[in-house]
Amino acid sequence: MTLTVTPLDATLGALVTDVDLAGLDDATWAEIHAAFLEYGVLVFPAQHLEEEAQGAFARRFGNIEQLSPRQTKSTLVFTNQRANGELAKPDEQGFHIMKGNEGWHTDSTYMPLAAKASMLHALVIPSEGGETEFADMRAAWDALDEKTQARLEGLSAHHSLYYSQKQAGYTHTTDNLYGFHDKGAPLRPIVKTHPETGRKSIYTGRHAYGIPGMSEEESATLLRGLIEEGCQPPRTYEHSWEIGDLVVWDNRCLFHRARPYDTNQPRALRASRIAGEPESELAPTFADARADGFKPTTSNVSSLAVD
């Protein structure tokens, strides 16, 4: 194969064409991986992959993160539509997660082992809205002055889905879908050095809170400012989905967020999430009272999952 990589009109992202991801050879994979490290997010239009082929492509990046104890495959469909055709209701926890994820974040930072990469493949899309937006936190770091960079270098923040959902107006209770969050709140450096490229980036997002040595207000103000200032053009790219699109991104240096859409319409994206290597993505966890009393059940599990 001879693939074509076309940079997007931003500091991140590239469109990759002239490639069949279902029939990938090692040489073409090496080109894709190099582009992934350079651009952070890759868009593959009109792939229309079967589940097995998507799983095989995802495993090229590393081990699959299990998003649910019930998950036995390399993919999981993120959808607001149930098998019987009914749509999720606004009072369900899965719906709350969907709305919460309209805030900037990187995947699984609230778990001990954060995600390395994530992948979405469009199966059903609404008539409008429902885009996924990405932000280049490498370029956001580069844009900071030296004094601010020096200040951030020594800081860390805790990460919690309980915290981020509360900020979005919801009360989260651990279920089987996000059951890994019974381990406590990880403490992660605010500045991350990419384990493969060596580039530095801001590593916070909506799950981050409670910088040690700062008051709650000081911490929130600093973290909010980093997101607001960092997630600005030309450091952002918003992807408008077409059925068959596959998008993969590097959680170690990008933020992303879901954009609103009419939830009276179905939306389904088949996801694969790649677990990080423990050497670079495993973080120490600290007691989180909000996770006390965790008892996984099937009665409170929503079939809804979201990007």
Task: Describe what this molecule looks like in 3D.
The structure is a single chain. This protein is α+β, with helices and mostly antiparallel strands and 307 residues long. The protein has one domain: Clavaminate synthase-like (Double-stranded beta-helix, 4-Layer Sandwich). The chain is 24% helix and 23% strand. It contains eight helices and 16 strands. The strands form four sheets. It has a seven-stranded mixed sheet with strand order 1-2-3-13-5-15-4, with helices on one face. A four-stranded antiparallel sheet has the order 11-7-8-16. Helix 1 (26-39) links the parallel strand 2 and strand 3 (41-44). The radius of gyration is 19 Å and the shape is globular. The model is unreliable at 293-307 (pLDDT under 50).
Largest β-sheet summary: 7 strands, mixed
CATH superfamily heading: Clavaminate synthase-like
* Assembly state (oligomeric): single chain
Amino-to-carboxy terminus distance: 31 Å
Unreliable spans: 293-307
Q: How many separate domains?
A: 1
Average the pLDDT over all residues and give the rounded result.
89
Number of strands: 16
CATH class: Alpha Beta
Q: Which CATH architecture is right?
A: 4-Layer Sandwich
Gross morphology is globular
Number of helices: 8
Strand content: 15-25%
Helix content: 10-25%
Strand order of the largest sheet: 1-2-3-13-5-15-4
CATH fold assignment = Double-stranded beta-helix
The H/E string reads EEHEHEHEEHHEHEEEEHEEEEHE
